[in-house]
Amino acid sequence: MIRISQLKMAVDHKPEQLKEKIAKELRISVKQIQSYEIIKRSVDARKKPIKYVYQINVKVDQEKKIQSRSRHNNVMLTEPVEYCFPESGQNKLKERPVIIGSGPAGLFCGYMLAKHGYCPLILERGDEASLRRKKVNHFWRTGVLDESSNVQFGEGGAGTFSDGKLNTLVKDPFGRNKEVLKIFVEAGAPPSILYEQRPHLGTDLLIQIVQNLRSQIEEMGGEFRFRSQVTDLLLQDGNVKAIEINKNEILSCHVVILAIGHSARDTLSMLCKKPLDMEAKSFAVGVRIEHSQEMITEDQYGINAPEVLGPASYKLTHKLINNRGIYSFCMCPGGYVVDASSQKGLLAVNGMSYHDRKSPNANSALVVTVSPADYRSFHEDGVRPAMDGVSFQRHLERAAWQSAGGKVPVQLFGDFKSNKRSTGLGNISPCIMGKYELSNVRELLPSMIGESITEGVLAFGKKIKGFDRPDALISGIESRTSSPVKIKRNDRMESSVKGLYPCGEGAGYAGGITSAAMDGIRAAEAVCKKYMKF
User: Fold this and answer.
1) Which residues of 212-243 are buried (b: 16+ CB within 10 A; e: fewer)?
2) Of 64, 207, 443, 524, whose CB has the highest number of CB atoms within 10 Å?
3) What single DSSP character describes residue 429?
4) What percent of the chain is helix, strand and coil (3-state, nearest 5)?
5) Are the C-beta atoms of 181 and 195 separated by less than 8 Å?
């Protein structure tokens, strides 16, 4: 196989023009191209006109000869990595494996185990996706929260109500990333996610896709149970013996994949009472910021940008004078800020887009990393230090809820700088799912974080024109960027409690849909390497 990198094309090119360009680059005729596959397509907007930049694998005869006569160093031989699930181990399973959680880690672990004959049982505390969507929409309209089925909990996990980004920075020598994307496509995702530099699905597509994944898992022998929260873990001699469901059912099991999300605080509290090796970890907190999407797109792509490019995104970082870093996170082009609360009396926000990204606003989180040393003062008596980050999150979220009576607190950036309550809007109207109220978001944050966000927005204004405009909208609190807890595991993916396999975001090993899905696959591989099919 020959790989061509840095192949540039006009954004409005036709498929036959791409094939002609490939032939020209390899100095062969179009007829000699047996097949080609787009590996990656990115956008180069540094100079106008804007170009697509391709990385392409090409199949031809006499590959070595053709590659050797290339005039450029962007043409090389390559051997594509194909994902391979491991052979089964020799230990016999007494019961089928149980997966706790149906977010990306749980779903993809379940998919792989079911595909290879392990008949997993997947337990989910929330509702199936279509009913969950109704519960979430009802909450946004009325403020009435179902603490078991909301933006954080339910089929598909927290990522279902997000922009649905599928890019990841995880190194992938085994082909798990591509396998995740292929499985998504088989479940109804657009094939373009296989090569787009920043693939995304959007909430509307994700809701259907996770239901399709469930159907596939069930057809392969898996089983789902919704409204089934694991409320206790029963041990014997340091091994998993059984789990308690909804405080009234005991289910015998010896292999449990713990794929809880980053917001399953009650489950983490229960686990803290077990002889389980856990620790507090660094995570990031901050706010959401909204701008006109038209402003962002014009800055990134120029005036009258080609419509095929869609709304532009951005990724920003800045080193602060206090030597910390501030960065944009989970940027949602044409998206919405959402009330992502999962506990009564506490309020957290997140970002979400539909697949078409048609909202007039762009939003992203602006967050600062905090370490256990930063939030140690929020330690609660009688609680393990591993939960200190959770205590800090609760403190912020309680203040946010109280500041606007349970509505999302919103503040103009100009007022945020001055630390005063906003009383009116500028030229940007909030695109928020859920009720909101003008407030003073700055006073909810520790001074270090408030000062960092102000400095960061002003610095980002030098990178994107208008980013620091006074009527940009700040909303809070963005506290659920990742898990504040890590459940330690060995190189076989097993925790200090034998038979318990922590994986995904809630266990502290992922940060996004794709990385969580890949970690779920790793957990399935670990179970397979040890046990025979059920």
Assistant:
1) ebbebbeebbbebebbbbbbbbebeeeebebb
2) 524
3) -
4) 30, 25, 45
5) no
CA-to-CA dists, residue 409 to 139, 331, 368, 478, angstroms: 16, 19, 19, 11
Q: Indicate whether 377 pLDDT > 80.
A: yes
Place of tokens 């509290």: 269
Alpha carbon distance 509, 502 (integer Å): 9
| pLDDT tens digits for range 304-321 | 889 999 999 999 999 999
Q: Are 22 and 58 in contact (CB under 8 A)?
A: yes
Distance of alpha carbon 503 from the chain centroid = 14
The 8-class DSSP code of residue 380 comes to P
Q: What is the pLDDT of residue 70?
A: 82
- Report the C-alpha gap between 127 and 155 in whole angstroms: 6
- Per-residue model confidence (pLDDT) at position 141: 97
Q: With 0-12 CB in 10 A as exposed, 13-18 as middle and 19+ as buried, what is 361? A: buried
Going from the C-alpha of 16 to that of each of 57, 404, 440, the distances in angstroms are: 16, 57, 56
- Are 288 and 479 in contact by the 8 Å Cβ rule? The answer is no
Q: Where in the chain is the domain with CATH 3.30.70.2700?
A: 2-77
Task: Specify the CATH number of the domain 2-77.
Answer: 3.30.70.2700
pLDDT in tens, 440-497: 999 999 999 999 999 999 999 999 999 999 999 999 999 999 999 999 999 999 999 9
Q: What is the 3-state secondary structure (H, E, C) of 400-415?
A: HHHHCCCCEEEEEHHH
62: left (phi over 0), alpha (psi -120 to 50) or beta: left
3-class secondary structure, 236: strand
Residue type present at position 328: S
* DSSP per residue, 24-55: HHHTS-GGG--EEEEEEEEEE-SSSSPEEEEE
Which token pair is 221? 């022998």
d(CA 188, CA 69): 41
Tell me the C-alpha distance between 131 and 64, whole Å.
56
Task: Locate CATH 3.50.50.60 in the chain.
Answer: 98-279+485-530
Tokens of 184: 């998504």
Taking domain 98-279+485-530, whether its CATH number is 3.50.50.60 is answered by yes
The pLDDT assigned to 167 comes to 87
